[in-house]
Amino acid sequence: MSEAQVTAVTREHAGEHADEHEAYCAVEHQLGVLLRRARAFSAEMGREVHPELEPGAYSLLIRIDEVVPARSSDLTEYFGVGKATISRQLKVLEELGLIEREPDPADGRAHLLVLTGEGRQRLAGARSARQERFRAMLGTWDLGDVELLARMLGRFNTLTDSWTEPGRERGRA
Amino acid sequence: MSEAQVTAVTREHAGEHADEHEAYCAVEHQLGVLLRRARAFSAEMGREVHPELEPGAYSLLIRIDEVVPARSSDLTEYFGVGKATISRQLKVLEELGLIEREPDPADGRAHLLVLTGEGRQRLAGARSARQERFRAMLGTWDLGDVELLARMLGRFNTLTDSWTEPGRERGRA
DNA sequence: GATTTATGGTTGCCCAAGGCAACTAGATGG
DNA sequence: CCATCTAGTTGCCTTGGGCAACCATAAATC
């Protein structure tokens, strides 16, 4: 059993009361650090992947590849950012020839997003390069812990997609 | 035992081989989403805390409070961002009367950072407001899982502080 | 002790990500 | 036909942050 789990299980049988506050505190703290480093981190990743592929582009491509055919609004919802941002980034991706935007036959306002061959190729390259970086970082971890981290992040993310809808454009109230 | 742990432990006894790739992939994916949402998240937090206290300021104050007396370079190292950024943000905090910068008696170049009474007060307010938000989000989780999330994030963060030193100013090579 | 080099911080200039608002164009419903 | 709604685009703004140049002090070397 991995380091993290042992500690967790131990604590679970201890005082579940005063610990709560401390636990929120700890999450808040670690998340604070992570988010502060977010940019540097993304940049670090992005740079090694492909200079032409800017940091933000990558996750966008991933998503477009995952859900075909994607629509702009899907992406805004998924990432919890405004459609303006997505629109601009898509424009760049299109100019780089990584995606194509064909008009949605079912809805004249919308566009369907697909990766071009070039896009798919670059994505594959970027993906493996990134995964290499992740392996380099997480390689010393227990496999279970890596999976655990992914799962915890995933669960946290689902929390945030609830409150991502209201307010400040995005879901547009 | 919490949901997350059960799954992890189960998998740990399954195929530890092909899973590795998948695990890195998953971390990468979830982290991508999280980082994309980072801004919105911080903003959301910051706004409710105190309008006068901008999002980024909070974590800075926390750190300054934690390690007294703090020096600018401590903060740059801790957050993994350049000293320029920190310097600017400190200036704002000083103007808001939340911190004071007194010259370091031991080193004429450096400044020692301390929270003012006002700063300490605002920080306390902000802190509890934020924790309230975290409770609202994580409240449905098992206590063990909250602690686990904090721990996993913490471990991940320690990974990144290794590679935060080289390159792009920060550690200045 | 004077000169070089290193270090802590500040500032100017730039970029990227994102929000908001105003707008266009197609869709829907009266 | 007109009103309203919705998908995207674009202009303008703010934040966070990097880089480089710079200043002042410290250390090191001669």
UniProtKB/TrEMBL annotation, chains A, B:
Residue span(s) of domain HTH marR-type: 28-158
Keyword Iron attached: no
Assigned keywords, A-Z: DNA-binding, Transcription, Transcription regulation
Segments forming a coiled coil: none
Cross-referenced PROSITE patterns: HTH_MARR_1, HTH_MARR_2
CDD domains: HTH_ARSR
Domain of life (superkingdom): Bacteria
The UniProt record lists the keyword Transcription: yes
InterPro entries: ArsR-like_HTH, HTH_MarR-typ, MarR/SlyA-like, Tscrpt_reg_MarR-type_CS, WH-like_DNA-bd_sf, WH_DNA-bd_sf
Cross-referenced Pfam families: MarR_2 (PF12802)
Protein name per Swiss-Prot or TrEMBL: MarR family transcriptional regulator
